[in-house]
Amino acid sequence: MAKLPTMFSLRHFLVLSLALNVSLLLRLMMHQGAQKAHKERTNSVTEEHHNIHKSRMVISSSSSSSSTSSFANSTSTTGGYNRVINLDHGDPTAYERFWRQTGDKSTITIQGWQSMSYFSDVTNICWFLEAEFGREVVRLHNVVGNAVTEGRHIVVGTGSSQLFLAALYALSPTDSPEPISVVCATPYYSSYPSMTDHLKSGLYKWGGDAESYEKEGPYIELVTSPNNPDGHVRRSKVNRSQGFLVHDLAYYWPQYTPISAPADHDLTLFTVSKSTGHAGMRIGWALVKDQEVAKKMTKFIELNTIGVSKDSQLRAAKVLRAVSDSWELGNSKESESFFKFSHKLMANRWKQLRLVVESSELFSLPKFSPAFCTFFNQVLEPQPAFVWLKCEGNVEDCESFLRGHNILTRSGTHFGVSPKYVRISMLDTDENFNQFLDRLSAIMS
Amino acid sequence: MAKLPTMFSLRHFLVLSLALNVSLLLRLMMHQGAQKAHKERTNSVTEEHHNIHKSRMVISSSSSSSSTSSFANSTSTTGGYNRVINLDHGDPTAYERFWRQTGDKSTITIQGWQSMSYFSDVTNICWFLEAEFGREVVRLHNVVGNAVTEGRHIVVGTGSSQLFLAALYALSPTDSPEPISVVCATPYYSSYPSMTDHLKSGLYKWGGDAESYEKEGPYIELVTSPNNPDGHVRRSKVNRSQGFLVHDLAYYWPQYTPISAPADHDLTLFTVSKSTGHAGMRIGWALVKDQEVAKKMTKFIELNTIGVSKDSQLRAAKVLRAVSDSWELGNSKESESFFKFSHKLMANRWKQLRLVVESSELFSLPKFSPAFCTFFNQVLEPQPAFVWLKCEGNVEDCESFLRGHNILTRSGTHFGVSPKYVRISMLDTDENFNQFLDRLSAIMS
């Protein structure tokens, strides 16, 4: 063993070492202070969200016979049978559980100086489309195999709602004395008539049920497949010349329906809200064959909102990438792929629902035919995002009947059909869905 | 002096102290490692944005006589006098320099599971308004003193463009046989006519110049103050009963104009694009007195885009907070306040512009009267976001004349007045602005 330093040197070393201790401690405290401040900022965003969630837990006293007021009444309260369970909207909160477990893979950080300009790529027809988002859209469609992207212009929108309006604007003849008719087979998405007619446009006008449409001349037919509200696969009905088709494929994803083939239409709409569950992002996209139609849709969005939020596009790109990655990198115990999670979620919910309702004389559910899914490579049942429930027997107004039991749903009348039907969301939180099943059981017993 | 510890104790102390040093060093290295990983994630988003900027540097060959195609031609190329300088739009890239130096204060991180719902606060009239954003709007108006927020409903929009359309929808009578006229004194914002008329709405219709408006009955008058394009302070012109006023105060911020008093109107529009420079965010807000008007504006946005991007609202809240903080926490060498930076920027640019143009017989600039600014507490000159340049002498078409010199501007005809005027952006990059001054000098010499 080496000879120890003298008392004089030891003392010096100790002093030096203590000085170093103090210095390192101070630096560490600085770092932790910075981290804490960062956490507090993050927590204030987190806390804000918790507060918003809490504020959603409000007694909704007025009924929602129109889809308009219903948006303001999207909350439920605690309190047993008196608890109002609001399943009127398709707020996709069921997916939150998946996204909580993805961690950093789906986190985005945006610096203050980024994405300030109006413009994304001015050489593109859709000059406000963020290239990164466009790439992830193409990739996801390739992964899932649910749409042809080759030869398509991508137009991004503030939700597919804005793209629907952009499509009407783009497809309407410019110099017609009469507005072009916009039709859709019943039951149709409850917002289509009001979205079409609220501005009393001279360019287009709601023409009602496509099945009974007989007017001469050009028309626009909306084809939603799988359909909202009833979940069935659909084709166009009118099938005459001079018709423009808008295919709304919001639910053409593997968790809702077997993927039969890549959709290959002239104008196809998708939305992040129903694919990944990020409804608050307000991002949708259109795959458009015709360049002139793509230009006019872009023009509409320019006049409406001078483009689409870049922050949301960048975040959507991150989220879509996480979905594609989760599938392509395979499933493991640590990280289940998004589509496996969501398919399992919907399968469980529909199974539980059918168990509860199957022997009931009060209610009936739609029947679906299984089909081969090219994505999951097996024969599977459709499991739509909404249940199109029918009240049997003497119950003529199903929405009122269920409202009397504190379950808020959307009446079939909003979808152009009988009030014996209601549309009920299958995408809400686990808590709300389980309470809904319990309530149905209670009604039936 | 106290007796020193024995050699045995000193050695022990030294060993303990050294052990503590090692432990503290290791902890510090861990923290720095975590920070570096965070920076790398940020840099990958940064790199994406550099690629987008590169894609903007494309030769724009077609001219832009209409504001429509002009959006697709917002780029400039390198190359001396042949370089096309596009100052047709108000893309606020001048502010990027400020935001680069704010660092973390304006950075936002959003986790994958946050803000997924459609809903923000369903107890609020504007159910998609993020509370945090609403609070920062109120705070900023208090800091600047440019608007009364007491007794106002805040409606958030995808830019003030969407809020303008929402205002038209909300103020139009529902059961009138004729569309209500929408008027504005010339020179008016070039997009107003097309935004008003592109859907040929039965509810409202462009009625032209407010100064010469004489039609009986209800009307909507747009008052933009400071005005776009000429920068002058404005009041309403029609001043009859049955008139609804929409005040567009996009430029009522201290860097553009003296703040005379808090704006106190029935319906006032603001936009993040022109206050902080974050045009790509697509966020605007309206301060609305009348509850029914606020409800109808909310309804419009619901039908148009089912709300407004939450990601953008949260980011806007962060940015507005950084602006308010930068003012309230005082100016220092390390961190200049946003308004000090931006006021100085505009002051320098206008000073340089006047120096170049003042002795010219070819061009003339508007004259502005200095006024007391309650924000900066001194008498100051207006320094608008656009220069309303007039070509004097024989030049009848100023836009063509300047286009011949590879400067793209927006012709006065788009603003309802003579082609001897053009609107030129004062908000573009330093590089473009300096090149513009050089080009003007070259033209005049």
Set out the fold topology.
The structure is a homodimer of 445-residue chains.
Chain A: H1 7-56, H2 67-70, E1 85-86, H3 96-100, E2 108-110, H4 131-144, E3 153-157, H5 159-171, E4 180-184, H6 192-197, E5 204-209, E6 219-224, E7 243-248, E8 267-271, H7 272-275, E9 284-288, H8 291-305, H9 310-328, H10 338-357, E10 363-364, E11 371-373, E12 378-380, E13 386-391, H11 398-404, E14 407-408, E15 410-411, E16 421-425, H12 430-444
Helix pairs in contact in A: 4-9, 5-8, 10-12
Describe this structure in words.
Two copies of one chain form a homodimer. Chain A is built from twelve helices and 16 strands. The radius of gyration of chain A is 27 Å and the shape is globular. Chain A has a seven-stranded mixed beta sheet. A four-stranded antiparallel beta sheet of chain A has the order 10-13-16-15, with helices on one face. A two-stranded parallel ribbon of chain A has the order 1-14. Chain A has helices at residues 7-56, 67-70, 96-100, 131-144, 159-171, 192-197, 272-275, 291-305, 310-328, 338-357, 398-404, 430-444, and strands at residues 85-86, 108-110, 153-157, 180-184, 204-209, 219-224, 243-248, 267-271, 284-288, 363-364, 371-373, 378-380, 386-391, 407-408, 410-411, 421-425. With 445 residues, chain A is an alpha/beta fold. In chain A, 50% of the residues are buried. The model of chain A is unreliable at 1-5 and 33-70 (pLDDT under 50). In chain A, 39% of the residues lie in helices and 15% in strands. Chain A folds into two domains: 85-99 and 335-442, Aspartate Aminotransferase, domain 1 (Alpha-Beta Complex); 117-328, Aspartate Aminotransferase, domain 2 (3-Layer(aba) Sandwich), CATH 3.40.640. Chains A and B meet through helix 1, helix 3, strand 2, helix 5 and helix 8 of A and helix 1, helix 3, strand 2, helix 5 and helix 8 of B.
